[in-house]
Amino acid sequence: MAAFTDAMSRLVSGLAVITTRRAAGEPCGLLVSSICSYSVDPPSVLVVVDHASRCRDPLARCGAFGVHVLGSAQEDVARTFASRGADKFTGLAWEWDAAVPRLRAAPIYLRCTPTAVFDHGDHTVLIGEVTRADVAEAEPLVFYRRLLDWRLREGGGLHP
Ligand SMILES: Cc1cc2nc3c(=O)[nH]c(=O)nc-3n(C[C@H](O)[C@H](O)[C@H](O)COP(=O)(O)O)c2cc1C
């Protein structure tokens, strides 16, 4: 429904890269805007993944996944993980944090253990309990009206 997608394009959201390890051992990851705080006790996030994503099956079966909330300096990382590239990790600084591929550039990193995974329609809902949270100061990467590069300006307002 066009009015629905138009309405949702006006909802300001942050962006995060969700990562995990495939059964064969290699890392995988995708960009999502559907990330939110789910509960404080226990500390949990909610992420929604399209069944068409190649990360859907690894995420639905994983023992841990990573949430990387991106800053305004990571627009290139956002585009890489929104792509269908064969190896999105080549050329990026990353390391294993237990079984989770951790991107060094992201200012906010959460390591999560899935506590609920269920399908609804053509998406999978993942609720993850946060077992590690690292936070560095950075301007957020904002997604608004189908553009990645909106910025929050000092003194108020959101500008491309
Ligand atoms: C701004 C933006 C937000 C997105 N949000 C989501 C999302 O919340 N969930 C999702 O499954 N895909 C989302 N996507 C699409 C995936 O990032 C995209 O389909 C990606 O190619 C999937 O990669 P994969 O097949 O390697 O997993 C979003 C893409 C963009 C550009």
UniProtKB/TrEMBL annotation:
Gene3D superfamilies: Electron Transport, Fmn-binding Protein, Chain A. GO terms for molecular function: FMN binding; riboflavin reductase (NADPH) activity. It comes from the Bacteria. Residues 8-150 form the Flavin reductase like domain. SUPFAM superfamilies: FMN-binding split barrel (SSF50475). Keywords: Oxidoreductase. This is Flavin reductase ActVB. It comes from Lentzea jiangxiensis. The lineage of its organism: Bacteria, Bacillati, Actinomycetota, Actinomycetes, Pseudonocardiales.
